[in-house]
Amino acid sequence: MTIRRYGNRSDWKRILTRNYREMNMQNREFEGVISFLEMHEVTHPLDVNYPHQNIRIADNGYSWLQHFPLDKNHAVTTMFDESGHVIQTYIDICLQNGVDENGPWWDDLYLDVIVFPTGEVLLQDEDELEEALANGTISENDYRLAWKEVSLIREALAENTFSLLRLAQQHRQLLLSISKD
């Protein structure tokens, strides 16, 4: 069974003061749910160590924009610093995503594609996917689905057709303009 994760991060105790908003969007560029989490005050920053760099992804004033595209097997989190600059785009491969009484969610399929502002792309957590298959947490079909989705995303990134990279700033501004909580 996969782990269900929610866009509102309500269980994340690191965030002391927050604003959260979400909206449905249906147009020719995107169909699904978009959420926006502003971290006004956190207990302590969150830094992530990658092979070639360390990146701060959560701190006072940081924000996360999430896209939950309809009928896709990924959820996209674009992380912004306190000045509104993109830090990274984190693409979670998922079995499915949806919305319930707690807001938008995704059922995590372990693999992650990370896109840095430089254009560098990093694939992460292949070992977790392999382990989930080996111990029966996911099926062979789920395993193949995860790798197929990674392939589709890499292809779209290479062809510069993964539109959510281009739309992130626009959607951030849209959600900033609607009333808070």
Description:
This protein is of the alpha+beta class and about 180 residues long. It has one domain (about 5-175): FomD-like (FomD barrel-like fold, Beta Barrel). Helices cover about 25% and strands about 50% of the residues. It contains three helices and ten strands, in the order ββββββββββααα. It has helices spanning about 125-135, 140-160, 165-175; strands at about 5, 15-25, 30-40, 45-50, 55-60, 60-70, 75-80, 85-100, 105-115, 120-125. The strands form two sheets. Strands 1, 2, 3, 6, 7, 8, 9 and 10 form an eight-stranded antiparallel sheet that branches. It has a two-stranded antiparallel sheet with strand order 4-5. Strand 8 (about 85-100) and strand 9 (about 105-115) form a beta hairpin. The mean pLDDT is about 95.
Compact overview of the structure:
By secondary structure, the chain is an alpha+beta fold. It is 24% helix and 48% strand. It has one domain: FomD-like (FomD barrel-like fold), CATH 2.40.380.
Largest sheet: 8 strands, antiparallel
On the 0 to 100 scale, the average pLDDT is: 95
CATH architecture classification: Beta Barrel
> Which structural class best describes the helix and strand composition?
alpha+beta
- CATH superfamily placement: FomD-like
N-to-C CA distance: 32 Å
Report the CATH C-level class: Mainly Beta
Helices, by number, come to 3
The radius of gyration computed from the alpha-carbon positions, rounded to a whole number of angstroms, is 16 Å
Number of domains: 1
CATH topology: FomD barrel-like fold
Give the amount of beta strand, in percent. Answer: over 45%
Quaternary status: single chain
SSE order: EEEEEEEEEEHHH
Morphology call: globular
Helix content: 10-25%
Strand tally, please?
Answer: 10
Spans of at least 5 consecutive residues whose pLDDT stays below 50 are: none
Protein name: DUF402 domain-containing protein
Domain DUF402: 65-161
Pfam family, one: DUF402
InterPro entries: DUF402, FomD-like_sf
